[in-house]
């Protein structure tokens, strides 16, 4: 059976069309799950140490080396038992160190993985282990081979989770998938980042037990979904504003005919950039940004919670000499899980500000009673960069198509924000904007695409 999978930066979902009906895969009670995995740290157990022939040989080598040392130094020779006991102690210690290195660098703890909100909660409660949120954000980054392997394993775990849950729900083995992809992946290597992202997804899908996968651009998938609802043929602009990317397509849809995808445009920015914006604008000044002499890039690193190298960089800094209260707050922010919590607070504030003119959060995990207040103007300042870029992308799309679309179909979690909706409207004045389900537009279209043979979606060159 073939399903559609929306492997989102923030949320993932899956669906299939069964007997003509769209069926969403349910993860517990939910129709999507946060794209996060938690791996509890495997603590190596010294009781697992046994003297294999290879380790025995190492012990013998240590005993021989000690004898030689004694002779050269002219010391009285120690008994064989003593020497051997010391040698075993050294070999055992090395063995433990090796296991510890392997456990933190490898896939050893992958069987115990937790997914979604459960993953984030476990990480915050346990205070140990590894939490990987939004792995999709890293697919297009320059990765050393070891890190790439880890990222592939993480993606494989998420895809396998989806495959097994879907297999259980549909009562038949799920072995094929149409996976959504952004028009432009977040990348540090230009187009090569996009290629790498696809190869990571392909490899991960194979490990996860999929025999065959294909990819469909996310806005084209959303277009497939919109297509189903259109009785008359029309040319429409589809806009999907998600957590990591903003994707646009121009398509000819409706009337039960074959949908034709004319063009697409992508911006590797989304809702997670708004969270970073809120964090830098409203939170970080309370940690000393622009006030303490700590370089601004430290605050960017702390706020970039999905960028593991930046997070590592921030944790390495020494803030013991920074003036109070900033020094203590920065040190608290270096604690396990604190940047994750701060990011959750920034996301909450962003969502609150999309519904009301004021919002506040309390950062008790940093300092008892540390309260941050923000108003609509703060959100405007925090989101200006993203809204400008998004506006330019939409203006470009409008200029490229050179005619007024019949409608604009809007989906993606970030499209819930009235400020974002307003900006979309400004690029297409007088055009009807149709609001799809912000969370399920893409996955519903991917399910349609999974049902149809590839020939049923005509695509022109981009
Ligand atoms: N009311 C709201 N106002 C603003 N943003 C919101 C609101 N509700 C959810 N979001 C944001 O929507 C984003 C998630 O959207 P979505 O699920 O479409 O992304 P995704 O599919 O995981 O990402 P992508 O498609 O970019 O890979 C998050 O950044 C979330 O904070
Ligand atoms: Mg999406």
UniProtKB/TrEMBL annotation:
GO molecular-function term, one example from the UniProt record: ATP-dependent protein folding chaperone
Origin: domain of life: Bacteria
Cleaved signal peptide residues: none
One Pfam family in the UniProt entry: HSP70
Record-linked InterPro entries: ATPase_NBD, Hsp_70_fam
Protein name (Swiss-Prot/TrEMBL): Heat-shock protein Hsp70
